[in-house]
Structures are given as C-alpha cells and as structure tokens.
Amino acid sequence: MTLNLDRACPHEDFEAQVNVGRIGTEETADGMPRAYMADVSVSCAQCGEKFRFVGVRAGLSFNTPMVSVDETELHAPIRPASSDPDFGVGIPGFAIGFRGER
Predict the structure, then answer these.
(1) What are phi and psi of 25, to 5 degrees?
(2) What distance in Å separates the CA atoms of residue 11 and residue 32, rounded to the nearest whole number?
C-alpha cells in the first residue's frame, strides 16, 4: 500500500528491521570484534510510512545510541552480557549538528 496524504493511516500494524554488525574484526589479533552495533528501523505495515526516532542525536557512536540524518534508523551499540562495561569504548564516531533555524 502507498501513502495517501489525503487520508490519514491509523498506523495499527508495524514492521521492524534489525541488523546487527560486528565492528573492527580485522584490527584484533583473535578475530573478535571490537564492538557490535544494532541498526533498527520501524515502519507502518499498512501504508509503509517510516517512523522517526525522537530525541536522539544524529551520527554514529560506539558508546551511545544515535540516529541517521533523517532520524529513521537507530544505531544502538550493544555488547555481550559477559563483556566488560568498557567494551567498544574508544572507537571513533561522529555527530551531526546544525546551525541557525530549523
């Protein structure tokens, strides 16, 4: 179904996509990743409209959740429950800001 701007969709059913990535395996002697990242997106199953993640800064970080520039994909760093709390810390990332009026 396509989005019809003349008639509001009730957004009653949803689809979510989660992709998990292993980060930096080529840089470690044992082949284990230096970090993991879960990329999450949500859309309406009825009309296909994408949902935005609210209140999260845009960019990519391996120690705090961030979103894509259009706010439709959440990049959430994750770690195994058995790992040290500093797992993934120290890997460079970036943040996107804006100047002026929005």
Answers:
(1) -70, -30
(2) 41
Angle at 98 between CA 67 and CA 100, to 5 degrees: 145
**71-85 confidence digits (pLDDT tens):** 999 999 999 899 888
Residue 101: per-residue pLDDT: 64
Task: State residue 24 phi and psi, 5-degree precision.
Answer: 75, 35
* Distance, CA of 40 to CA of 19 (rounded, Å): 7
Pick from 20, 18, 25: which is nearest to 91 by CA? 25
Which strand (E) or helix (H) includes residue 22? strand 14-23
| Range 65-90 burial, b when 16+ CB lie within 10 A, else e | bbbbeeeebbbbbebeeeeeeebbee
The side-by-side arrangement of strands in the sheet containing 94-96 is 14-23, 35-44, 74-78, 66-67, 58-60, 94-96
What is the four-CA torsion angle of 38, 50, 68, 82, rounded to 10 degrees? -10
